[in-house]
Amino acid sequence: MSIADTESLATRPDDKHSDSEKQSLESPTPSPTVRPADCAFGWIPTLAVCVNYMFIFGASNSYGVFSTYYLNVKFQGTSATKLSWIGTLITSLMLGCNIATGALADKYGYRTTAYIGTVLCTLAYILASFAKEVWHLILTQGVLFGIGASFLIAPSLSIPPQWFDKYRGVASGVAVAGSSFGGLWFTAATQAMIDHLGSPWALRILGILTFVMTGLMNLMYFRRVPARPRKHLFELGALRRPVFWLISLEACAVYTGYWALTFYIGTTARQLGGSLQDGSNLLLVLNAGSALGRILAGVIADRFGNMNTLLVSLVLTVVIMMPLWMRATSIPPLYALCALYGMISPTFISVNPVIVSTQFDSDVLASVMGMTNLFAGLGVLAGNLSQGAIFDKYDHRVQFTNTIIFSGMFILFAAIVVFLMRFSSQAVGKKANCRCPE
Fold it and tell me: Can you give the residue ranges of the Major facilitator superfamily (MFS) profile domain (predicted)?
């Protein structure tokens, strides 16, 4: 038995099907609306999720371009703490509001929820293009886009895990790799549009693209198993399970530290004598490495276990980030940092949904993932605002030593939580497999 098989037994004490799946298995003629796991059809909605992730997370992954432009050009005299609200709210509301949008997706349908997100994200871009003050961007590019993205991400998180069993990690990795692919072309396209057309038209064009592409992809959001009628909007039963709180704590901690490099690598390049284009190129390398890393993370997790893979990646992230970033004295080491950080650090984005899917039934995945993402959103909010304040007050806007230490310690704490989760799941697995007489 492989390590992954052992972990699967440990993390899933009872291998229960949802009521819809049981009904289809017991019926002599299965319902045509329930397709088998690991069927080829499952790649259609999975690839649709991949494309939508390009536009959901592409905005946050490429925000470093806007951040560098706002900090060094458009709002040069504005504090990093104030400007950090824009990017912070994109991700924190995208994840934090998922506690409501995830429940709505399970109750009212994946496509309905996704189309609400498409409209709100498009509106956010268009309104942001007319912004003249920082608070205008906070409300539009930050708040409105973050809420809209939450409506899009709610069904997107649940689709790959419910369509696959044997290749669940790979499917999740392929889907979330879309966020890195989006970061790649979003970063290059955004920088080019800002340089040649200005930031207002850059925002308008991104809005039009988001409306067209996500609108088409939403049509392919199919559930594998029909949802059961729900009496309650939220899956409150999850709160009684220790593993839910461990997953939530890990998500909060890792998101607290994760975004520092994305938001500040461009400014680091400027401090070392680089240009705005150098900052954009570094983000391209970061997202390219991330695209490869997210797919590889799924493959490795299927072989060696989800928690094992996550634990190792979090430790390696700290080992790579702290010395390379803190000791960088020129631009070339930053490229090595971005490549390695991109490949290793975002493993949690691929693996966390898979861990949740091994613990909870498929018909409540969007709700439970939304509840854990609330803590992830709080981590983004606390982490990004704290990093901006640390950069202003303790690093005096001339270095990133204290910001890096803050980020690294939270990622390391997330690794400790995963270790505890792994230890706890092993204990549960041994108890479940015990056949001692009563």
Answer: 46-426
